[in-house]
Amino acid sequence: MTAGELVLVVGAVLVVLAFAALVVTLARVRQALGELRVELADLRAGAEPVLDELRRAAADAEQAMATARLDLARFDRVLGSAEAISNTAARSGRAARTTLSVPLIKAAGLATGTSRAVRRLRTGT
User: Fold this and answer.
1) Of residues 81, 83, 60, 57, the one with CA closest to residue 68
2) Can you list the residues of the chain whose pLDDT is less than 70?
3) Residues 14, 19, 21, 24, Cα dihedral to 10°
4) CA pair distance 4, 52, nearest whole angstrom
5) The model's pTM
6) How far is CA 87 from CA 69, 90, 91, in A?
């Protein structure tokens, strides 16, 4: 056997060994992919109830927000009504004070004057 033939035989053996290593590696990769598929299926099965619960919680939160918006709108109307009533009461109070202050002052003055006159008549001065 010549040196060239020996190099060819050694090269062929190395190629066969490399091919065998490649086959083993691909078999392991295929096995790992199978295990990964199983784990992914388990993950999906486990995540589905959690996602359903999350969807329900989001729907409940959305409903609570809608209720809160309605309550806030109702409270805003009540607050507006209370403000209008307060303004009306303040105007009524001012009107009553303006209307009654002059006659009350005159009545107080008349009462004071009358009491002084009665006192003078009693004392004789």
Assistant:
1) 60
2) 125
3) -160
4) 70
5) 0.46
6) 27, 5, 6
